[in-house]
Amino acid sequence: IDVFLARSLLEKLYLFQYPIRPASMTYDDVTHLSAKIKPKQQKVELEMAIDTLNPNYCRSKGEQIALNVDGTCTDETSTYSSKLMDKQTFCSSQAASNVSRYAAAVYKKGELHLTPLHGILQLRPSFTYLDKADAKHREREAANEGGDSSQDEAEDDVKQITVRFSRPETEQARQRRVQSYEFLQKRQAEEHWVHLHYYGLKDSRSEHERQYLFSQGHGLAENTELIKSPSEYLMMLMPPSVEEENDKPMAPSNVLSMAQLRTLPLADQIKILMKNVKVMPFANLMSLLGSGTDSTAVLRCIQQVAMLVQGNWVVKSDVLYPKDTSSPHSGVPAEVLCRGRDFVMWKFTQDRWVVRKEVAAVTKLCPEDVKDFLEHMSVARINKGWEFMLPYDEDFVKKHPDIVQRQHMLWMGIQAKLEKVYNLLKEHLTPKKQEAQSAHPLLVSGEQRVSMAKAKVKQNYGQLEKEFQKQKAEMKSNDTSAKVDVSNIRIKEEPVSDEEPMDTSTYEGMNNGIVNGLHAEEDSTDSLNGHLPGGCIDRVAQELKAFVSSTFKKQFVLTLSELKRLFNLHLASLPPGHTLFSGISDKMLQDMVLDTGCKQILVPFPPQTAASPDELKVYALWEAGDTYDQHRQVLLEIFSKNYRVRRNVIQNQLSQECGEDLNKQEVDRVLKVSFCCI
């Protein structure tokens, strides 16, 4: 089939897509009453007649719509002059923004004639007549309300007018105004309608225009686009797509393929790798850069973006925090962040362990920023601190002593700056352990740790037995009134069986002056295993009662778990050899809580709760002697019936029991002051 390109209607041919027609409307020559177009916007409005004589047409509904729109008066401005909805307006919208791929085709006598489309418009019903009906309704209501007013009252009152001068519009403000929705709507409304004349399907003018769909001449001059070689024709049908490359999904900013990485210069490769990895041994860096890379060039480049810490390379702070940036957590400028991170890196050159609180105290940065610094180069260990994440690279230190010496000089300069900025004390400058400055730390196997723990337990057991026998002999010879019944004394024995699980921490970490849970000193005469000689029992009870009383006066409601935690913190603040170190059992602590005027609140927690037994035991101070005693007791009664209560229930119950109306703020204050724990 020969294909021809028709140009006569180029940039003039539109395709109209009509909606599904109702039974009372046919798209024929008679129905099109008027048409108008806005060429720039490619917007068309068609007014089409409705067949009111069709049996499917509801005449009463049509009369009601016409009455609502035009009212009872009929003039030139009326939408429906026949007092019947006999026409409907259709408004267009663009079906596709790019119509260059579409054409209208006509097949005739073995020839296919194509005419490119200039636009594809979808026609939809316009309901502007409903807006007109609403406006008529509002006018009638306004006329009815103002009908009784006199002519004098209708005159406009004199009003004061304030004159304001607009400020000069900046270029940025003008661009925002031009791109705004209101401006675009106003600009579209300003374009004038071009009225069209509709010709029917069988009109002679339509027959004449329809001939323009055929190519007027079949010569080569007009159809050069279709006279191509097969390869050129295929290239026209399927051109190389530029959009496919642009539409490829971008990889995340922290993801870079090795193929893309190796196309970059060596310095950029090292910078990107160190910025993403942050800590890396030199051997790993060489393996990532590929075979054939000169190690000397790598060493030259790595020193520009990283510093040597324990034989490993750590990315510099100014690479992670460039100039004119700030912290995402606190908004601190990059200069302060770099200084704080340099302090952390310098601490790791002195020791394998760093304490987070110490870093925060020196740098005065927020906890989130300090945590980011530590996570870059270390791993958190429970009850120990943050340990440098990589082992000491002794191979690199032996192979490149000149690099190590140069990095050491750089760290000396950084240390001098940090001393001036942070006013570092001597304790910050000297490492905690001399062994940390040497090679990699001592590693102890699991079997050795278990053996050391067992040996320590046996040693402690023997020492405790000797101490007990000594005190037993002293108590027999002591004929005072504070004599203690030896038969009631029980020895707290340590497990010595091989099957018992033992603490696997290192022996040095356990040597903290506490033996079997007790502080033991050479000159200390305090008893062991929770039993006191003579009148010391009363003194322990007084100390424990003072702690419990002061604690519940600060926090009126506590769980047993929280109380034990506060008691351990209290013990940590006491000097070695204090009477409270003689061993306070859970039962003794709970009995003392009840003796100080507190009560146990049996909160009905759900059976599926994951809380521990100590967390389910709730104690509360019943009378504190303040103005909130009555309110607090009502709250305790409420929570003894349900563990979760709505605020309005609490407010109503307090109002009923206390005989006063409490607003939301007063209820919040009562909950905060008296009962914030539960």
UniProtKB/TrEMBL annotation:
GO biological process, one term: tRNA transcription by RNA polymerase III
Chain intervals with Basic and acidic residues compositional bias: 134-143
Disordered: annotated span: 134-157
A Pfam family assignment: RPC5
Span of domain DNA-directed RNA polymerase III subunit RPC5 C-terminal: 432-676
Stored InterPro entries: RNA_pol_III_Rpc5 (IPR006886), RPC5_C (IPR045576)
Coiled-coil blocks: none
Gene Ontology CC: one annotated term: RNA polymerase III complex
Protein name (record): RPC5 polymerase
Source species of the chain: Halcyon senegalensis
The organism's taxonomic lineage, starting at the top: Eukaryota, Metazoa, Chordata, Craniata, Vertebrata
